[in-house]
């Protein structure tokens, strides 16, 4: 079921939740706090939640966005959940590489790969 | 601090903007500089890098330098020609020592949520300089040379 949200498109199924960013520049500093609040509400109390963040609409990223993703990842780990990122374009992936955060996050080429990856863990 | 000599421009080349210290106003210099880069033929990759570095500098100025105080201002000076982009960002804060910022790519710091902005500024520009106080940063972005034809 898709739920309305100002910054995120959220699709929940029995096995996982899929989140898409609604705007191409959504990860700019101005919106980060609101996105973080929305994601926090989504994962709050959801033990074992499997979450895919789809970056297909995202063409800009800042250190504030990386910080938000790290906090989300830690929170999910504390709740025995998993976070996977997918569909990251080449420029954005370069930011993950430069910061070496490609070693921390599980990054997949497509949403399908990410979802399939849950079964392998 | 005046423009670093190695940046290859004169003081009189620079355009100055003073913007209120909030993240929304901080977007205006970015828009102007990106427009000037497009006019000067920079490719999207170079523009992406400069935009990222500038956003990090503006965020540092508003949040850390001016401590989110809306009564303060941020000064931006910039210059764009087909070979280089020069940007200066100055806040009203008491500055910091860039050498004391821990390396965010060190194994022990990888999962720390903060401290990547300065590192990204260095990664996406050709050169970064601070004044002695640490409340003014100068960034130089040179256009990458075109790929050499293969024989």
Give your account of this protein's structure.
The complex is a heterodimer of chains A (121) and B (151). Chain A is α/β, with parallel strands linked by helices and 121 residues long. Chain A has a single domain, classed as Transcription Regulator spoIIAA (2-Layer Sandwich). Chain A has a six-stranded mixed β-sheet with strand order 1-2-3-4-5-6. In chain A, helix 1 links the parallel strand 3 and strand 4. The longest helix of chain A is centred in the middle third of the chain and has 16 residues. The two termini of chain A are 25 Å apart. In chain A, 31% of the residues are buried. The mean pLDDT of chain A is 88. Chain B has a five-stranded antiparallel β-sheet, covered by helices on one side. Chain B is α+β, with helices and mostly antiparallel strands. In chain B, helix 1 packs antiparallel against helix 2 and helix 2 packs antiparallel against helix 3. The longest helix of chain B is centred in the middle third of the chain and has 22 residues. Chain B has one domain: Histidine kinase-like ATPase, C-terminal domain (Heat Shock Protein 90), CATH 3.30.565. Chains A and B meet through helix 2 and helix 3 of A and helix 2 and helix 3 of B.
Short note summarizing the structure:
The complex is a heterodimer of chains A (121) and B (151). Chain A has 121 residues and is an alpha/beta fold. Helices cover 41% and strands 21% of the residues of chain A.
């Amino acid at each position: 079921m898709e739920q309305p949200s100002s910054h995120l498109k959220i699709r929940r199924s029995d096995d996982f939740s899929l989140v898409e960013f609604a705007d191409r520049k959504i990860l700019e500093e101005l919106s980060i706090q609101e996105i973080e609040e929305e994601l926090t509400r989504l994962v709050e109390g959801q033990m074992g939640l499997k979450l895919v963040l789809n970056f297909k609409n995202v063409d800009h990223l800042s250190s504030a966005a990386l910080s938000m993703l790290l906090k989300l990842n830690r929170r999910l780990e504390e709740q025995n959940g998993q976070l996977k990122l997918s569909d990251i374009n080449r420029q954005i992936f370069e930011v993950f590489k430069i910061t070496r955060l490609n070693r921390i996050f599980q990054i997949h080429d497509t949403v399908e790969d990410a979802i399939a990856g849950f079964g392998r863990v | 601090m005046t423009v670093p000599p190695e940046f290859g421009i004169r003081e009189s080349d620079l355009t100055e903007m003073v913007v209120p210290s909030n993240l929304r106003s901080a977007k205006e210099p970015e828009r102007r500089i990106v427009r000037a880069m497009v006019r000067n033929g920079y490719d999207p990759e170079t523009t992406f890098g400069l935009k990222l570095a500038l956003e990090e500098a503006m965020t540092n100025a508003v949040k850390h330098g001016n401590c989110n105080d809306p009564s303060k201002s941020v000064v931006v000076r910039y210059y764009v020609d087909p070979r280089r982009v020069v940007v200066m960002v100055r806040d009203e804060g008491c500055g910091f020592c860039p050498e004391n910022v821990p390396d965010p790519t060190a194994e022990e710091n990888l999962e720390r949520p903060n401290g990547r902005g300065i590192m990204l500024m260095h990664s996406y520009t050709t050169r970064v300089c601070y004044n002695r106080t640490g409340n003014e940063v100068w960034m130089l972005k040179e256009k990458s040379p075109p790929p050499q034809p293969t024989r």
